[in-house]
Design a protein that fits this description.
The protein is α+β, with helices and mostly antiparallel strands. Among the domains are: 42 residues, no CATH class; 77 residues. It has four helices and 31 strands.
């Protein structure tokens, strides 16, 4: 060691523990050193302060300002603590090192403490850093650029916060993360008094996935990165539904695992199933040509709109794919449609209207009003008077009869005793008035095309017959009048002759 002057040698003797001055001391309260600043030079220089007594004893360096103590680096022997304080005191030092290195706990400080121990400070045991207020836990802040940006953690539960407004808050004990609030109510809780958004941004697909565990995914929703947005339930047999109005069933849209869609029901039984407790329905609205389409992709299949009341079928509107006709049925007689449109013909209570009829009705017709037919002269040509009407009518055989209602029940034939003509007989006399109708099958299995009579066109024949009878009667009346006149003349002449003969006989007498 090289000592620059005698004063430095004295310092070395007192402080450096040289062998020949190992126990040298400065005693008293007066500092005898008044020379230049001391310097110690060596390969491994050190300065030793030996505190000989036991108990609360201090050793250290004190810094003064013109004789007034300002700060103090010290070692307190009893507690085995090294610290820095504004005075020679272990009470609440600004920096302290507990050389026994105790562990930091929720109520005890650690081996290294930055900050006064009776206030906010950092405490560490080499394994962790805790913020303390006295011996109790406090928030730990990492502050950048003032008070607007910081990171904080504290309390016994290990919660963690980022940002002065709890921009990100981790509730460690509950396993929750909050954004914009310090008390998240769910695993992820986002709050913003104006608007709260979640953004998934990617040039490719973006998904929000739902997992049961590390290997079982139940479902996901997202965008495929092209143009499709979708939701998928990956659980076999699982459903997918949306509810509003606090989960009311009436406000439910349910997509059942079999592909059935329910509106207002959690249990759809068809591809589209709507349920409403009041007056409601389905509206198809478009600015031009709105339509509802039923498309059978299996070929000649039936398609139906059913009208039910309390589950009971009341009416149907449908298409009979196997026979190609549109029908309306009241549901009371489901086997025979009430109204049919087939091959541009209309059948009422008849699903196969005859080819000769625009309207083919099985059953009675009641008309409140007039039944008329086109008869304008301007629509007609080849107009001729009906001849031999009386002769034709006289060949017709009016009969009383009953229909075989038991054998042809599907035709709804009237069951009362009727009057009319026999079509086959009329066909021999007036074939133009007999029309072949639909095909019928008897109880024995025989099929035939039933015949119908145009009773309306028999009316002109009856008129012609009456006119012929009238003409004949008029001719007979004329002949009778002539005969009566001739007889009257003859009687008059006879009476005159008889009168003359009587007068002559009287004269002779």
């Amino acid at each position: 060691m090289f000592l620059r002057n005698s004063r430095l040698m004295a310092l070395a003797v007192c402080l450096c523990g040289l062998p020949f001055f190992a126990n040298a001391q400065w005693g008293g309260t007066t500092n005898p050193w008044t020379g230049s600043d001391p310097e110690i030079e060596s390969l491994n220089p050190d300065l030793q302060l030996d505190i000989e007594s036991t108990g609360t004893r201090y050793g250290g360096l004190e810094f003064l300002n013109s004789g007034t103590s300002e700060s103090y680096f010290f070692y307190e022997k009893g507690s085995n603590v090294f610290g820095f304080n504004e005075d020679q005191s272990l009470t609440n030092p600004y920096i302290s090192f507990d050389l026994d290195n105790p562990a930091v706990t929720s109520t005890l400080n650690g081996g290294i403490n930055l900050g006064r121990l009776n206030g906010l400070h950092l405490s560490s045991d080499g394994n962790e850093i805790q913020a303390k207020s006295g011996t109790a836990n406090s928030d730990l802040f990492l502050n950048f650029w003032g008070s607007s940006t910081w990171i904080a953690t504290g309390n016994n539960d290990g919660d963690f916060a980022v940002g002065s407004g709890n921009d990100l808050y981790v509730d460690n004990s509950a396993g929750r993360v909050g954004m914009g609030l310090s008390a998240p109510a769910d695993e992820l809780h986002i709050f913003n008094s104006a608007a709260a958004d979640i953004r998934l941004q990617s040039a490719g697909s973006k998904y929000l996935r739902f997992w049961e565990d590390a290997t079982t995914e139940h479902g996901f929703m997202g965008h495929n990165g092209v143009q499709d947005m979708f939701m998928r339930n990956r659980t076999s047999g699982g459903d997918l539904y949306l509810q509003v109005d606090n989960g009311s069933t009436a406000s439910t849209m349910m997509l059942e695992s079999g592909g059935d869609l329910g509106l207002g029901t959690l249990n759809p039984t068809s591809k589209i199933h709507t349920v409403s407790t009041g007056s409601d329905g389905i509206i198809v609205e478009a600015s031009n040509y709105p339509y509802l389409r039923l498309n059978s992709t299996g070929g000649s299949e039936d398609m139906t709109l059913n009208f039910l009341e309390a589950g009971v079928n009341r009416a149907n509107v449908g298409w009979e794919g196997s026979a190609n006709f549109l029908y309306l049925n009241t549901g009371i007689n489901a086997s025979t449609p009430t109204f049919v449109i087939r091959d541009n013909r209309i059948g009422i209570n008849n699903d196969n209207p005859g080819a000769a009829f625009a309207v083919d009705i099985d059953g009675d017709v009641n008309i409140v009003g007039e039944l008329t037919a086109s008869s304008d002269r301007r629509l007609k040509k080849n107009i001729e008077n009906i001849a031999d009407g009386l002769d034709l009518v006289s060949q017709l055989r009016p009969v009383h009869y009953d229909f075989r209602t038991d054998e042809f029940a599907e035709m709804n034939l009237p069951d009362r005793h009727k009057m009319g003509l026999i079509a086959q007989e009329v066909q021999e006399i007036l074939p133009a008035l007999v029309t072949t109708g639909g095909t019928q099958t008897s109880v024995t299995g025989d099929s035939f095309e039933s015949l119908s009579v145009n009773y309306v066109e028999i009316v002109p024949l009856l008129i012609a017959s009456v006119q012929e009878l009238k003409a004949q009667l008029e001719q007979r009346d004329a002949k009778i009048a002539d005969l009566e006149s001739d007889i009257d003349g003859r009687l008059a002449r006879l009476e005159a002759l008889l009168s003359t003969d009587s007068s002559t006989a009287a004269d002779e007498d």
